[in-house]
């Protein structure tokens, strides 16, 4: 599986047009190898949208980009609704718990995205860390195929309360055990309030 992480910077006046355009991507359901998409607004960065999509493999994703993407993009009228976009592709390494995140995208209200940079001397230790917690519905641990030091950890949460409990109780222990305070490991966390109309299963 590959994971596509999209971030868009949006002007205040374009919030509604962007959101309405994002709702028009449901033709993705017809695409071979497409497994699901989820997204919403970053709670910590005003006017930043985050979208994550899941694909069977790189071959079907590349075929989509070459044959279908532009048609859906143009029909969505999304071209002029954002001022900046970033797209990153990751390979899935493993699920955080026993649940396949693509099967329950409509069950959560919060998406946590951890953007991680890990020095080669710490990677084996980092990859062995488990972030599962009560209230976490599912999650995926991913790696950038082009940058050996870059990881993405995406987790789906039932609600704000369950995520906050994780932040207050589990996360500090995880930081200690993973040696994340070490200068060789840097993590930036994004907390996304899921827009149910953006979810495609």
What Rg is obtained from the alpha carbons, in whole angstroms?
17 Å
CATH topology: Alpha-Beta Plaits
SSE run: EHEEHHEEHEEHE
- What is the number of domains? 1
Mean pLDDT: 87
Separation, N- and C-terminal Cα atoms: 15 Å
CATH classification, class level = Alpha Beta
Task: Find the count of extended strands (DSSP E, 2+ residues).
Answer: 8
Fraction of residues in helices? 10-25%
The number of helical elements comes to: 5
DSSP strand (E) fraction? 35-45%
Structural class: alpha+beta
Which stretches of 5+ consecutive residues score pLDDT under 50?
none
Largest sheet at a glance?
8 strands, antiparallel, barrel
Give the overall silhouette. Answer: globular
Give the strand line-up of the largest sheet. Answer: 1-3-2-8-5-7-6-4
Topology:
Layout: E1 2-9, H1 15-22, E2 34-42, E3 48-55, H2 58-67, H3 69-76, E4 84-95, E5 110-118, H4 123-127, E6 136-143, E7 150-157, H5 160-178, E8 185-194
Antiparallel strand pairs: 1-3, 1-4, 2-3, 2-8, 4-6, 5-7, 5-8, 6-7
What does this structure look like?
- The longest helix has 19 residues, at 160-178.
- Strands 1-3-2-8-5-7-6-4 form an eight-stranded antiparallel beta barrel.
- It is globular.
- Strand 2 and strand 3 (48-55) form a beta hairpin.
- It is α+β, with helices and mostly antiparallel strands and 201 residues long.
- The chain has helices spanning 15-22, 58-67, 69-76, 123-127, 160-178, and strands spanning 2-9, 34-42, 48-55, 84-95, 110-118, 136-143, 150-157, 185-194.
- The model has no long low-confidence stretch (mean pLDDT 87).
């Amino acid at each position: 599986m590959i994971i596509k992480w999209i971030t868009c910077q949006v002007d205040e006046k374009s919030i509604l047009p962007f959101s309405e355009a994002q709702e028009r991507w449901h033709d993705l359901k017809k695409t071979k190898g497409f497994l699901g998409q989820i997204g919403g607004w970053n709670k910590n960065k005003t006017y930043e949208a985050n979208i994550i999509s899941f694909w069977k493999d790189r071959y079907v994703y590349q075929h989509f980009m070459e044959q279908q993407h532009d048609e859906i993009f143009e029909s969505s009228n999304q071209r002029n609704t954002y001022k900046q976009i970033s797209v990153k592709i990751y390979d899935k390494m493993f699920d955080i718990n026993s649940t396949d995140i693509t099967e329950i995208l409509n069950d959560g209200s919060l998406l946590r995205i951890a953007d991680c940079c890990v020095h080669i001397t710490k990677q084996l230790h980092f990859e062995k860390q488990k972030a599962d917690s009560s209230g976490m519905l599912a999650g995926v641990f991913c790696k950038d195929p082009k940058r050996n030091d870059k990881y993405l950890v995406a987790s789906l949460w039932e609600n704000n309360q369950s995520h906050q409990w994780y932040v207050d109780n589990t996360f500090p222990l995880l930081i200690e055990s993973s040696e994340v305070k070490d200068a060789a490991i840097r993590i930036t966390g994004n907390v996304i309030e899921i827009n149910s109309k953006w979810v495609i299963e």
